[in-house]
Amino acid sequence: MLLAAGAVVALTTTAASAAGSPVTHTSTQPTAVSAAVAPTAQRDASAPLSRAAVLGVGRAVHPVVDTGIYSGPGLSTPRIGTAWAGDNVAAICQTQDSNGKRMVLGIERPGRNGIQWANTAGYLWDDDIREYTGDLPGCAGYGRSVHPVVDTGLYSAPGLSTPRIGTAWAGDDVAGVCKITDSNGKRMVLGIERPGRNGIQWANTAGYVWDGDIREYTGDLQDCGLS
């Protein structure tokens, strides 16, 4: 079973109109949150590794503090979870927000019972990551283009019972990043919904989409990996 069991606290956040997205779109989205964002920390070469890297997309990096996971590439986008200090995070690609801050699309591998599902995905602030991430590929060109056949949900983790954090609209360009199977045997695709919607959702919102709502075959995508 890939997901950590337990409820996730949800709240509603209204996005700001300036910082946070490479395309200036705003949104109001439900978010899952377990702790406040920690202050910026200096990178510490002595910070402990929590576990060895796992097979799957990206490479293992480790937060130096408990830090936020955001649905879009910016600190003013909805916060949907936490990457805890020392945890194994799969760093996939990098981008910059409108203030020039580097954000890393990552998967927080461990879960927390009653707090957060395993393999929660979103953007992290690079300054809160111990390892150098400037050599990661750019998120703008990452993944393979796929298209939803209906308006469908973006979920924070690989499962239709995890918090829904956005929408992938029918016909939109979604970057298919990797695939994973949930505990019910349904294939989920970690994707980046490229277009935004003014007043509704930030551009480049990342989340898991049910494969059954995607037009193209996704079985040949890279595996997202396990917790």
Provide an overview of this structure.
With 227 residues, the chain is mainly β. 0% of the residues lie in helices and 33% in strands. The chain has strands spanning 10-14, 28-32, 59-61, 67-70, 79-83, 89-96, 102-108, 120-125, 144-146, 152-155, 164-168, 174-181, 187-193, 205-210. The strands form five sheets. Strands 3-6-7-8 form a four-stranded antiparallel β-sheet, with no helix packed on it. The chain has a four-stranded antiparallel β-sheet with strand order 9-12-13-14, with no helix packed on it. It is globular. The N and C termini lie close together (10 Å). 52% of the residues are buried. The model is unreliable at 1-54 (pLDDT under 50).
What's the quick description here?
The chain has 227 residues and is mostly beta strands. It contains no helices and 14 strands.
Helix count, per DSSP?
A: 0
In whole angstroms, the N-to-C terminal distance is 10 Å
Beta-strand portion reads 25-35%
Oligomer: single chain
Q: What characterizes the major β-sheet?
A: 4 strands, antiparallel
Proportion of residues in helical segments: under 10%
Structural class: mainly beta
Kindly provide the radius of gyration, computed on alpha-carbon positions and rounded to a whole number of angstroms: 16 Å
Return the string of H and E elements.
EEEEEEEEEEEEEE
- Widest sheet, order of strands: 3-6-7-8
Low-confidence stretches: 1-54
Average pLDDT confidence is: 81
Keywords for this structure?
mainly beta; globular; 14 strands; four-stranded antiparallel sheet; 33% strand; disordered N terminus
